[in-house]
Every structure is written in C-alpha cells, then in structure tokens.
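Changelog-linked ticket: uridine 5'-triphosphate example.
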Amino acid sequence: MHSSSPIKKAIFPVGGLGTRFLPATKSMPKEMLPVVDKPLIQYAVEEAAEAGVEEFIFVTGRGKSAIEDHFDHSMELEQTLESRSKTEALALVRDMMHQPGSVAYIRQQEPAGLGHAVWCARHIVADEPVAVLLADDLIKAAAGKKNCLGEMVDAWSAHGGNMVAAMEVPLNDTSSYGIITPGDSHGPLTEVNGLVEKPKPEDAPSRLAVVGRYIIEPGVFSELSRMERGAGGEIQLTDSLARRIGEVPFHGMTFSGTRFDCGSKLGFLQANVAFALDRDDLAADLSQWMKDQNL
Ligand code: UTP
C-alpha cells in the first residue's frame, strides 16, 4: 500500500566515526547501540515509516555490515525461533522487514561531513524532496502526538521548501549545533533567516538549534555539489541549506516530543531510562529499583 505522504524517501547518514562512544564504536556503528532492546537506527527507520516514507537510503561508512544485516532476513535465526516455537520473537524480527527493493546502501568513501554524506545519495533521491534523519538524535514522541518527522511532514505539506527540526538549547551549548537566525514565528514554525554552524555563545544569533531531522528540496543538492568546506573543515548540510534562503521557504519546526542526544553518553543513558520507564514490562521494576537505590 502506498502512503499519501509527499515525502517518500529518507536518507539515514550513518558514516560518522562515533569517537565519543569509543571503545563501543570501534567495530560497531554507533547507530547500532541499543536503547533498551532496539538499535538507534531502528527507531529512526520506524519514525520515517510511520511518517509515510517508503524508500530508505543508508549512507554508510565503516562497519556497514551490521546495519545491512540488521535490516535483512536472518534465515538461521528465523528457523531456530520457528523450531523452538518462539512465535513472539519470530514475529518481532519478521515484522521489521521492508518491501524488497525499498532499502538502499551507498558508501560515503570518506567522512567529509554530514553535507557530503547527504550528497552521496543524490542519484537515488533524484529530483524530489527527501527527509534526512540522524539516528543519534532519538526523539520520543509526546503522548497522543505524531512523531517528529510526522509533524514535520504535515507542516511541510503547507509550506514546501526546506525544513529542520528545532529546539532551544542552553546558550553555553550553541557551539555543538547549527543555530538559527529566527524570523517570524507562527505556532511551532519559525522562519529561518540565517544559519550558523557551531557558533560560540557570544556569536550565536539565538538559542534555537537544529536537531537531526530535515526535509530538503532538490536545490540543496546543487548547493552541496559545490563541495565547499565549512566549520571543522567538513562539508556542512546547514551551509547549503543557508544558501537556499530567499530562493525557497525555510522553516524551523519546534516539535512536541523529547529529544535525546544519543551521540553523547549522558543523552544515551537518559534515553535508556526514559524509554524503559515507558515500557509495561520494565517500568514498575525499574522505578522500584531506582527508589531502593535512592536514585
Ligand atoms: P557527528 O557530528 O555526531 O559525528 O555526526 P560522529 O562522527 O558521528 O560522532 P563523534 O562526534 O565522533 O562521536 C552527526 C551525524 O552525521 C553523520 C553521523 O553518522 C551522525 O549521524 N555523519 C557525519 C556522516 O554520515 N558522515 C560524516 O562524514 C559525518
């Protein structure tokens, strides 16, 4: 069945080095780190599928095999589960499979930056708007609300152009984010008049930061192909988005969910606790244990 979403494709850049999570990420991509019992990348793929995405494009670097294997059948595992009548576990691994041909892998030959990773997917994306999801930004949907990308797709349908997920960060943290020069705001949407990658607090135009969800239009790929290096000597996605200001609409959307920076150890630990406390099979025992430990 085809979804009615105007955004049918999503790029998942998974080519970063994950240095903040060494040694865990020495031979395993950080996107395979599990929050409770599911790898980060699976949360991102499920978020995209729920938002109507039908084609999944992974831009990989080193250690791609774990991610490829994760989204493929494991015949041996399935046969073993079947022979042991582990029906629930079997359904779990079978239900996460996507239509044959709907998952593509592209290799980013060097980790030259997020913009470069997105540009590597240009031939598969062709001439249509596409979502970009960074799996290490895990966003827990608010109760009764759509997930972050779902909220963005709804807003994007009315405005088009480029859109990023946005949230206020402490002034001291601006140098870890792309920061928005805000224009007019309408509800959760803020017009983006400028974007600065990783500014020092004293240079930051606001505290409104870009987090890892984007909907980008084809003009961004033309800008990326200039291969200009920005902050940190990397080809930055935000620089190409900024160059489209004035050509097409550009909005930051403040989403209703909670974002966990799972590229950092603290954010990853917080995500594990928050997601576990949301699970019927874990919540009671975990909160009792935390009480007993005076946590
Ligand atoms: P990060 O800035 O978090 O870098 O990348 P990193 O290498 O993954 O992690 P640390 O900082 O060394 O611990 C932001 C996102 O962009 C992707 C990463 O996979 C991550 O999702 N990325 C970054 C690429 O796909 N390719 C790149 O060249 C750079």
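Closing comment: Example verified and attached. The longest helix spans residues 148-159. The two ends are 47 Å apart (CA to CA).
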